Structure formats: C-alpha cells, structure tokens
Amino acid sequence: MSGGVSEVHVEDMLIYNVRTGIYVKTARGRGGYVRDIFISNVHIVNAKVAIRLSAFYDDHPNDGYDPYALPVVEKILVENMTGQNITFAGQLEGLPDSPFRDIFLSNITLGVTSFDDAWSCSNVQGSSESVYPQPCSQLQIKRKTLSPTCSFGSDVDCDVL
Length: 161
Fold this sequence. Notes:
- The chain is an all-beta fold.
- The protein is 0% helix and 57% strand.
- The protein contains no helices and 6 strands.
C-alpha cells in the first residue's frame, strides 16, 4: 500500500510545450490517497491535455502489490486557469469502485482544438463554475455553497449542498 499526498498548493505557474499540463495519477493496487490539492493561477500553452486525473496509471515498482488496494482521490480544486492551443481540456478517469470525489473547477478558459470532445470523464463527482469549454456532465453541477466546516484540509465531506 502507498501512503498519501495531501495539502499540495500549486500557484502562479506557466506551463508550455507539454503533453499534459496538470497530471494527477494513481492506480488500482496503489491504495493510499490524493486529497486537498489546490491549483490556482496557471497558464498553459501548447499541450495535448490541460487537466488529467487518472486512476489508470498502472505502473507498479514490483509484483508484490495488493491488486485490491484502492486509491482515494478527493478534494481537488483547480481555479483561475487559462490555456492556448490545447487539444483536450480535461480527461478525468476514476475507478468504478473508487470514483474521484469533490473535484471543483472554477474560472477556467481553455482554447481547445477538439471542441466536441474537449472533456472526457468517468467515475468522477464534483462541480464547476465559469469553465470554458463546458466540462462533462458529472462536473456541470454548480455548488451553491459549501458547509462552513467544509474546507480543503478538513476531514468533512465536501459534497455539493
């Protein structure tokens, strides 16, 4: 089992000439968690994918891993992002038995070249506000407010209210 990654803040970044701008990856058999990730004020130029969250990385250091250990990916906020010459806005792929939860996108404008299939999502739950192109249906819910006890870094469930 892996440990976890939490309380990561990425701010004021320029990313250019890359395959993937923001990439969070894990896999079945890793276990552990990725939570409380805050990404803000990012500009991406010339990328195949702007935002990718994937539970299908499938790279293990050896054969001694537990294939039943499921990763937990939750409470990821991406806000204030712009991009130019992006092929796909986002690819978000959770596991059916461990979907990504509480993914929040806000104030994102990406100039994409594949507008009809700009976003691809499966097994993901969250919300969005002011995102162009419009994200996949699982993220089109607008959150009205968050509970005062819900914040990044807390153990409180941040479901949309």
